[in-house]
Amino acid sequence: MPESISFMHVNSIETIGPDNWCQCFGQSNPFNRYEFLSALEQSRCINLDTGWQPYHLMVTDSKTQKLVAVMPMYIKHHSWGEYVFDWAWAEAYERNGLGYYPKLVTSIPFTPSVGTRIGLTDELTPAEQTSLLSKVNDYLVEHINQHGFSSWHGLFVTSNENTLWPKQGVISRHGVQFHWVNHQYNNFDDFLNRMTSRKRKTIKKERAKLAQYNLKFSFVIGSEASDDDWQHFIDCYQITYHKRSGHSGYLSGAFFKLLKQFMGQDIRLLLVSDESGNKLACALFFVSQTHLYGRYWGTKQELDGLHFETCYYQGIEYAIEHGLAIFDAGAQGEHKVARGFEPVTTFSKHLVAHEQFADAIGHYCKQEQLHMSLYQQQMTNMLPFKSK
Question: In terms of residue numbers, what domain contains 197?
Fold first, then answer.
């Protein structure tokens, strides 16, 4: 551990550079990768105008000026696109004549997926990592107080970071997501056979509804997909957001085109076509050595069961075929439980400058944890698998 370290914020990931970023984060998680975050910045999906102002943190050895850690960070002027909801906290500030924004957020924009939130060089021992996290925490406390930020929020941190992060003065918040776990299945029927007879029949009926349409489902590597394939996906993505919220989505066509250019080998487009070859629907997945991540989808024609088939069942089959351990299909969705997605705990860390609000929010999060624990147990009891 360096005797002394220094902290610096930069307004572009380009200032840090791909080699330095990869040195700290590696390449294992697609959303932590330099290419993903750079595509967000280059396409201007995140900037001051969209309320996501890059403010990345660099931690260096003061003596050697060698980088020892980096942390993605943003100055936020709203709470959209975070998926750890703090709207009630902002409203409470407003009711008391205080400003909740701007705040600092360490997360992957628009991406509710668990991942490392502070990248450390592999030269640090576990004890040195713990010490460094403590120093970063102390710096963040001082920084939000000195520069007029209401708070700092580290969202969807890993369980390891949750354990190592200092406890004093830090608010921990728990959530629940639903992930599919590959219990060494040989095929989809092997997966279904682990379920009770009634649940197994329900899924078979659900999948059979689409048989009359003779649809074709094809996974295509992102870098090998044609421009027409990508435009079809972009159209479908925008259709979904127009239906949900009346706008074309947080992410632009320019962003997705940069993804193809920067990390297309790690992307799978699932193209859905009718029997005449007309493209009907599409979904985008990311792959790592261990995980499949399903993120965006849309369809030009509503068909009963198409969403579940495209977003869940095809992904499960892909994960089984390629020996992937986890399929993370996105946030929320109790409907995933009946389809074999297991509830898992997610973690976030919060530093709040205002002492009284810090106490109130901390108390709220402790109560919320009790409810989350009960909720997770209830969801576990609803899983469709046979009793062991």
Answer: 183-324
